Amino acid sequence: MSEIKRIGVIRDINGPIVTIDLPGVRSGEQVKIGELGLFGEVISLRGQQAVVQTYESTDGVRPGEPAVGLGWPLSVELGPGLMGGIFDGVQRPLSKIALESGDYIRRGISVPALDRTKEWAFVPNPTLALGAKLNPGSVLGTVQETHTVVHRIMVPPGISGELAEITPAGNYTIETIIAQVLDRKGVTHSLNMYHRWPVRKPRPYVRRDDGISPLITGQRVIDTFFPQVKGGKGAVPGPFGAGKTVVQQQIARWSNADIVIYVGCGERGNELVDVLETFPQLDDPYSGHKLMERTLLVANTSNMPVVAREASVYVGMTMAEYYRDMGYDVVMLADSTSRWAEALREVSGRLGQMPVEEGYPAYLASRLAAIYERAGRVETYDAGIGSVTLIGAVSPPGGDFSEPVTSHTKDIIETFWALSKELADARHYPSIDWVTSFSGHVHTAAQWWHKEINPDWEKRRATALALLARDAELSRIVNLVGPEALSSAQRWELEGASLIKEGVLQQSALDEIDTFCSPAKQYAILDLAITIYKRGEALIKLGVPISELQNLPLLAKMRRIKSMYSSEQLEQIQAFRGEVDQAMESIRIEYAKQGEPA
Ligand SMILES: Nc1ncnc2c1ncn2[C@@H]1O[C@H](COP(=O)(O)OP(=O)(O)OP(=O)(O)O)[C@@H](O)[C@H]1O
């Protein structure tokens, strides 16, 4: 990465696409455009000429103005001070910028992502002695970044050697040299507490790790029905207003990840404002501090052209990988990959590339796959296991899941939580549709559930899904010929499915008790609903009229129990199970008596 700046000239401007003459310029290189010094990136080369996509509006920029090649690709700063930050799509710190340039971001403004003046209390790694062998990722020491996050200061990728010097514990800025590393060629590398990394290049790790650890979100329809694992790839497609934001916020807040990175590439500014206002107010249920202490937001501001959205996903992913390298489990939420794909489409259109499906370029699928490929659970160099789980919201126009972005995404991801407009209209939240959603992790997650919670988890889950499928079939018959056409057993199946839907799947994010449900409570509730159904099924076979079962007050209680008792009150749920057994058993005894000869 040369740091020598080269100066060229602007030839042509087409919206955010600018053609420049700049000898020696490289593909991917960062360029400053015009007198304003707008940020841009070289996306193609034609002889001496380079095509640049700018991240800011080019209004008022004229051919003939200078273009400066910076000599490095789009990269981010990685070091203490990221947590709690709100950055734009090219990692400029929005709160700092607001201080410097007011609410409206002045174009061409250049503010480093990390504060150069703030001092951090650095504690050297006590296991390191002078002469210790260091590799990329070796932990030199730690800094308490926020109340909740310990930031491991690591040797950057590409550097290895012997520890020649390390600074004692103390307060230092990120630019202070804290260690000297002597490499095999005799070159000394002076390391401070941050480094830069090009966003389009995945950060290295030792190897992929195939251990399984479910990402517990506390949401029953996710954890029990369509589970995700740490390091997994998922998508939440949904039509407008179906509840994408709430699903993502619930994951951010309740999942058992250490770090949350939210990348907002929304189209409507007000959605983003909503996120920027809500996240800082959320409390972290695990630490008692604010959720922002372990969260970082990347938001595209409305005065940046759509092409900046394209970069923002890579910027977010690189920071996610950095915390993964410290041994953390990171969840990255990208909202939405549809808007990201539209940015690709716009750039490719301006470049005159041949559109393939619905105007998207032929490389849409491979770009989507490449970004999802960066998710995963890995063995880090020095910090154990870390993971990045990537969950992309997809907003298909008109809710049509067959459009290119949704269908390509579906081929790449393993977990698909499809939001349904019908369910949302019926106020069934989360509106994750159990017919079209899927998870490729059910059998692997089952290993964890069977060991930690109950060996019957997979069986119970399958019974519930089978009941829901029967419900769809039987509802069609009811719609055609009316409920009288159904036998008592079939009507009881409908009742069972309704217990699953209302008692298990529905979960209000606004309900103080039910907003989070531990795995043990999830299983207890599912088991209850299925027990009631199975016991009732047996009674109906004995000849008990369905009306007698439908009048049982325990059905109403089953529907409410999720909100009556918290995850800590499992004994009460067990006690209710006892009541269910008793009530069903007394009906059985009564009917068995009636059947006996007088
Ligand atoms: N799990 C939930 N519990 C309770 N209410 C919910 C839940 N999910 C969604 N809602 C309700 O639905 C409304 C819309 O949800 P949300 O804002 O998440 O939709 P969206 O799909 O993100 O919309 P957009 O298309 O604008 O992004 C919420 O304001 C809330 O009232």
UniProtKB/TrEMBL annotation:
Q: Which residues form the ATPase F1/V1/A1 complex alpha/beta subunit N-terminal domain?
A: 12-70
Question: Can you give the residue ranges of the ATPase F1/V1/A1 complex alpha/beta subunit nucleotide-binding domain?
Answer: 218-439
- In Pfam terms, one family for this protein is ATP-synt_ab
The residues covered by the ATP synthase A/B type C-terminal domain are: 447-538
Can you provide one Gene Ontology molecular function annotated for this UniProt record?
A: proton-transporting ATPase activity, rotational mechanism
Q: Which GO terms describe its cellular component?
A: proton-transporting ATP synthase complex
InterPro entries (UniProt xref): ATP-synt_VA_C, ATP-synth_a_Xtn, ATP_synth_asu-like_sf, ATPase_a/bsu_AS, ATPase_F1/V1/A1_a/bsu_N, ATPase_F1/V1/A1_a/bsu_N_sf, ATPase_F1/V1/A1_a/bsu_nucl-bd, ATPase_F1/V1_b/a_C
Query: What keywords are assigned to this protein?
Result: ATP synthesis, ATP-binding, Cell membrane, Hydrogen ion transport, Ion transport, Membrane, Nucleotide-binding, Translocase, Transport
| EC number(s) stated in the UniProt entry for this protein | 7.1.2.2
Keyword Ion transport in record:
yes
ATPsynthase alpha/beta subunit barrel-sandwich domain segment(s):
111-200
Q: What GO biological process terms does the UniProt entry carry, in alphabetical order?
A: proton motive force-driven plasma membrane ATP synthesis
Q: What class of enzyme is it?
A: translocase
Task: Tell me what reaction this enzyme catalyses.
Answer: ATP + H2O + 4 H(+)(in) = ADP + phosphate + 5 H(+)(out)
Q: Which domain of life is it from?
A: Bacteria
Residues at which ATP binds? G238, P239, F240, G241, A242, G243, K244, T245
Look up keyword Transport and say if it applies.
yes
Which NCBIfam families does this UniProt record tie to the protein? PRK04192.1 (NF003220)
Q: What does this protein do?
A: Produces ATP from ADP in the presence of a proton gradient across the membrane. The V-type alpha chain is a catalytic subunit.
Say which family it is in. Answer: Belongs to the ATPase alpha/beta chains family. T3SS ATPase subfamily.
Q: What is this protein called?
A: V-type ATP synthase alpha chain
Q: What organism is the protein native to?
A: Chromatium okenii
